[in-house]
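LOG
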Amino acid sequence: MKDTQYPWIKHLVDWGPLIAFFVTFKIGGLMQATAVLIVVTGVLTGLGYFLTRKIQPMPLVTLVVVGIFGGLTLWLQDETFIKMKPTIILGLFAAALVGGLAIGKPPLKFLMGSALELDEAGWRKLTLRFALFFAATAVLNEIIWRTQSTDLWVDFKVFGILVLNVLFMLTQIPLIKRHQLNSPAE
């Protein structure tokens, strides 16, 4: 079975755990939400693998980090670990993108190459911009969880990061258009 037979599974794996975390937090608090996040992330990643016979790199990294930091949160009853999870994931993504650039292989080309056709300069620029965005968002997560209430941090994690991602992606449209290969005829 190919993932094209189940186009909805990517969205379910990406958004299901976040929605479950948010709803459970509002009902039962951070520890219960963390437990639900671990379980739902594992179940949906497993379902995605069962249906498509592959796991994308980002959900796999998320599963590992959620398991480790969520597990530490529950085991030690310390919310610090789950609040650091977005920082760790975003930092890992930023480092992977910079590392790929350093060896001359922009990882975004591998991850998004089927959706976008850009020239090499475009892939390098887009990869660097994503790396900087992920690093800045990781720093912002650190500032917010260390200085604000848990309620505000959860709202930022669920809605703030989403809005920042959408705004960032919209600002990349001109770069993508400038470097796109096989542009439609005008």
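LOG (cont.) second protein
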Amino acid sequence: MKVIVIESEAYKKIVQKIEWIYSYIKKREKENATLQANPSEVWLNDQDAAAILRVSKRTMQRLRSNGEITYSIRGNKVWYTLAEVKRLLSGRVVRNDKQEGGKP
């Protein structure tokens, strides 16, 4: 068996990097678990929902006012379920049903 000797500072840096990689992987696993969870149980704040829908916060307010999206207010913050955001997203898809030879 070979013995490798390194300075203690170099060893500490290696250990720190390994710990950082470990925490990064754990964080990603947690995020993936959240995304794979039941969409009706995952709550998004106003900013995250707007980012998914690619609209402004003002548009989110208009959607709430018009009753186009259901929401909850907790602690002076607006929350939406992931299922509701997905429903709204799929409802706003514009299909291109152009026929060949037809007018655009």
